[in-house]
Amino acid sequence: MIPKTIIEKQITSLSATLAPVPQKIQVWAEKNIFIKWGVLSRGKFHCLDCAHAWKPDAQKASCKKYISCTQCNGKLKMQQCNQVHFKEIEYFAVLDICGGFQVVRIICSHKNMKKKCMPTYYHKEVMQHWINEKGEARTLSLGTNVFSQAYDAWKYYSPLEIRPKSFEFSPKYRINPYKVYPSSKAISVLKRNGFKGSFYGIAPQVLFTALLKDSHAETLLKTGQTDFLAHYLTSHSQHIRENWQAVKTCIKNNYKVKDFSLWEDYISLLRWFKKDLNNADLVCPENLEELHDRLVEKKRIIQRRKHIKELRQEIQQAQIAYEEQKKQFFGLEFTKENLSICVMESVHDFLEQGDMLRHCVFANEYYKKRNSLILSARFENKPIETIEVALPSLEVVQCRGDKNKNSPHHKQILKLLNQNLYQIKNRLKSKKEERAET
Q1: Are 142 and 156 in contact (CB under 8 A)?
Q2: Does the predicted TM-score (pTM) go above 0.70?
Q3: What pLDDT does 351 receive?
Q4: Measured between alpha carbons, how far is 165 from 209 in angstroms, rounded to an integer?
Q5: What are the E-state strand segments in 51-100?
Q6: 254: which of 14, 126, 191, 315 lies 20 to 30 Å off by Cα?
Q7: What are phi and psi of 183, to 5 degrees?
Q8: What is the DSSP string of 207-224?
Q9: Under a CB-based contact definition with an 8 Å cutoff, are residues 104 and 131 in contact?
C-alpha cells in the first residue's frame, strides 16, 4: 500500500531509519525461543541441537517424551516421527523508540534441523507496529500469500509496507511473539501507565495500545489484576466493561478468578436478580460453582412459574430472531462412532438442554448471542455437553456438561469439534457472499 496521509509518510520514512536487528539479538533468539529437539533413528538418539548421536542406556529410555543430550546436556523433546529434515518457526519481538513512537518489531525465525548436522537459522522482520502516545497504532508488514490457509504465510521477498488502519482487526496484527528481547526500550508514558516490563501472555502491541487509550486496562495493571487484564485483552467473549462494578469489588478484595466464563455467567445472574455488585460476599464467592448452580436453579424455577402461554409466546418470538441469525448453520452435524455434535436449531432445544444438563444455556439466554454459535454434543443420542463457539474467530469459549463439569467424553468432543471447525467457517463465508450479492 502506498503511503498517502501525513502520518503514513512519516512512519514509512522513520521505518527506513531503523537499523537491522543486530546479530547479538539474533543469537539470543536462537538460544531462547526454540525448543531443543531429539529423534530416535536406527537405535540411536540424535540431538538436533548439537548433532551428537548416542545409543540409549536402557530400552525404557526410548519411550520417554524428554531425554537429556549426553554431550550438550540439553533437555530434548522427542520428535514423534523419524524423517530427514526438521523445521521449527517461532516469533520474537524487539521494542524500540523512534520519532516519539513506541515501535514493536516482530521477527519470524526459522530453525532448520537435520540429523548429524548443526541447525541453521533464518531471521526476517515481518511486522513493525508503530504506536503513538494516544495509543493509535499503524503497522508495516510484509505481504502474505492469499492462497494459503495460514494467515501468516509471509512473502519473505516483499518489502515492509504500510497497512490500512483496519489492519488492527486482522489476526496477523495480534500475533503474540514467544518472547520479547529483554533489553528493550519503552516510551515514558507506558511506564507512567503501569508497564514494568512484563506482558502476562499478551502481545506487546495489544498491551501497549490498551494501556495508552483504555483506562480499564490501566487500572487492572496498576492494581495487579493481571489475570483480569489478560482475559480482557485476549478473550473474544469477555464482558469486563459490562461487569466493571463487580470487577472493582474483586480488586478491592484482591479476589482471584479461576474460571472467567463461569464467573461472568454468575455475575449476569446476580444482575438478573438485581443483587448489589458492591457486595463482596456475593461477587467474590469461595465456592463459585455451587453458588452459580444455585442461582441457575432459582432462575429456572422462577421462569417455570410463568404462565405456560406466556413462555410459549416468548419462545416463539425468540425462535424467529434465532432462525434469522443462525439459519445458515442449521443442519450442521459432526459424528464419530457413538459421538455426535450438532447445532441447536430451536430455542426449545436450549430449554431442554439446560434442564437436562442443569446449566444456564437457556436461563442466560444464549440463543440471543449474535456472536456465538451453540452446539449440542451427544453420546448415544443423549446430550452430554453444550458447546459455545465464538463467531467469527471460531474460538471454543465453553464446553460444559452436567452442572458445568466435563463429561467423560470431553477430550473426544473437543477433538471432533476442532476437526470440523472448517465447516462452520465455510457456512460463514457463504453467508458473507450472499450478503455481498444482495
Answers
A1: yes
A2: yes
A3: 87
A4: 13
A5: 53-54, 66-68, 75-78, 85-98
A6: 191
A7: -85, 65
A8: HHHHHHH-HHHHHHHHTT
A9: yes
